[in-house]
Amino acid sequence: MNIERYHWRHYFGGMAFLLILLQLVSGVFLSLFYLPDLGEAYASVQSLYRDFPFGAWVRDSHRWIALFLIGAIIIHAIRSLLRKEFLGSERKVIWLTGGLLLLPLLGLMVTGAILPWEWKGYWFMEMVPNYLEFIPLIGPGLKQATIESFSLNRNFIAHVVVIPFITIVLLDFHIFVKLRIRKVALSRYLLKHAVLVLPFLLAIAVLAILVAAPTLDPDEIPMPLEETYIPAPEWLFLMPLLPFMYFENFLAPLLGVYLAFGLFVLLAVLPYIVRQRTKGAQIPGTGTRNIGKGRNWRTRIVSFLGVSLVVSVVFGALYAGAYRSPTLGCNSCHNVSYGARMGLPPKAYKDRKIVPLLDDNQWMVEHWFFPQVVW
Are 208 and 61 in contact (CB under 8 A)? Predict the structure, then answer.
């Protein structure tokens, strides 16, 4: 038995898998109470918090699991990259499906953020088409099609049916190919990884209680929102939009769109441009070498420090760049106490001629981060 297969650092992929399963289970519960209607969506979310036992806890757990899922995926991907676990004919399938899984998971996060259809969800819906506009060739048409075809019903169906189905299909290829290579039963795989997940589940449960999304606006939200930060996992989704606030002209889409897309493509084709050169015992059925066996403690320490450094830099950049966004503070101004216009997103949200500023990416992001300054 290869003891290294059971090292803690191998478990973040399985942890991500279990968190996805928990998202599916909690999402099914939430879908029973959600009303995908422009006038009733946020009211149904408030009702879930107010009228159903544990409803608020389940929804906030659903939100925080998404953040922990991103962390597990980043650590899993960095570890796999540094250890060149994309080498070998069968491992190419694992690597490619893992990369493709990022797309539906991103889609789930975006559509999920839009679902409540309070001002935060509305603002996400307005910013996403602007981001899509910078995709070469098809961007402008894709932006217009997204705006014109959007409805809460379609967004809801995409979130609970279409994208989860795509995710499950990719997970089937990604997970079961790996289990076949390792000759491990699914039940044993889940049981082993559940041990690692337990401390994180405890953290999620506590965060869902202590840092819940405010819904009884304006009572739970500071008015006005001045020098006040309400913690929320959603701020992580704003990272690709930050360049549009700090840069102009070509630099903004270069850093926010093209660089990210180029990095994704580079990582996807990595198995085809990197060759295995390390000598060692071949792992049966994989076509790769067992490069981990026989590594001394110095190498392990360097490997651990390297992974820790990369993860710290990634999360440090995310934290420094976006954590100050008052993501859950929109309702400090946009609530029913200020009237229908401020309380509910506009019904004419598809007509940008009414508010031309919605096409101004810099203004959109600045208003998100500094609403008390940028009107």
Answer: yes
Measure the CA–CA gap between 176 and 22, rounded to whole angstroms: 19
What is the average pLDDT across 345-350? 80
Instruction: Name the residue among 244, 267, 232 with its Cα closest to residue 121.
Output: 232
Q: What residue ranges define each of the domains in the chain, with the CATH number in brackets?
A: 3-274+295-369 (1.20.810.10)
The dihedrals phi and psi of 289, each to the nearest 5 degrees, come to: -100, 150
Whether 162 shows a pLDDT value over 90: the answer reads: yes
Helix (H, G, I), strand (E, B) or coil at 282: strand
Task: Find, among 276, 266, 204, 267, the residue nearest to 60 by Cα.
Answer: 204
Q: What is the DSSP string of 318-344?
A: HHHHHTT--GGGGGGTSSGGG-HHHHS
Cα–Cα nearest to 330, from 345, 317, 340 = 345
Q: Is 39 helix (H, G, I), strand (E, B) or coil?
A: coil
